[in-house]
Amino acid sequence: MNEKIFKERTKKLAIAIQKLIGEMPHSIPAEAIARQIVRSGTSIGANYRSACRAKSTADMINKLKIVEEESDETVYWLELIIEMGFLPQEKISPISKEVNEIVAMTVASIKTLRASSKAHKA
């Protein structure tokens, strides 16, 4: 994955999530989910940037695991937004697609780093 492109994608994702949350209804359940998805969705890019500054392969893998976890959590909150009827699926689908792609790329990167690390140890 290209570091510059991935940084830009995760930043655009954070902005899209912020805008999406602005369209949610003002109720206690909706606001609780909004707070959660803002945290997880914006931390994806921040944690990826941290992974780019990792001190070792093991450190990078650990930081990318956080990106994976935050991305997966964001998918969960997006699903809840749809299932609770806070926003229509059409609004959520593009963001959900992007987060799922980020999860897939992150998992692939982790696997590549692990394989490379094992090859260097052998």
Structural write-up:
There is one protein chain. The chain has 122 residues and is mostly helical. The chain has a single domain, classed as de novo design (two linked rop proteins). Helices cover 86% and strands 0% of the residues. The chain has four helices and no strands. The two termini are 25 Å apart.
Count of helices? 4
Radius of gyration: 16 Å
> What's the average pLDDT?
95
Number of β-strand runs: 0
- Within CATH, the superfamily carries the name 23S rRNA-intervening sequence
CATH class reads: Mainly Alpha
Q: Which series of helices and strands comes N to C?
A: HHHH
State the domain count: 1
Q: What would you call the shape?
A: elongated
The CATH topology comes to de novo design (two linked rop proteins)
Helical content stands at: over 70%
Which secondary-structure class do the elements indicate?
A: mainly alpha
Please state the second-level CATH architecture.
Answer: Up-down Bundle
* Cα-to-Cα separation, first versus last residue: 25 Å
Residue windows where pLDDT falls under 50 for at least 5 positions: none
Task: Quote the beta fraction.
Answer: under 5%
How would you sum up the major sheet?
none
